[in-house]
Amino acid sequence: MSVVVRTIARILIPVILVFGGYVILHGHLTPGGGFQGGAVAASAVALLLVAVGAPAVKKLKAPFSVLEDLGGVAFVVLGFLGIGFTFFANSLAGMGGLFGAPVPSGPNPGVLNTAGTVPLMNWAVGLKVLGGLGAVLVLFGLFGGDDDR
Amino acid sequence: MIGNVPFVACMVLVLLGLWALLFRRNLIKVVIGLKVIENGVNLYLVATGYVKGGIAPIYTYAPPDAAMVLPTPQALTLTSIVIGLATTALMLAFVVVIHRHKRTLDGCKVTELSG
Amino acid sequence: MRYWTVLAAFAVVAGCLLLGGAGMRPFGAPRLDAMDQYFNARSQAEVAANNVVTAIVFDYRGYDTLGEATVLFVAVVGVALILRRVKR
Question: C87: how many CB neighbours lie within 10 A of its CB?
Answer without folding.
Answer: 5
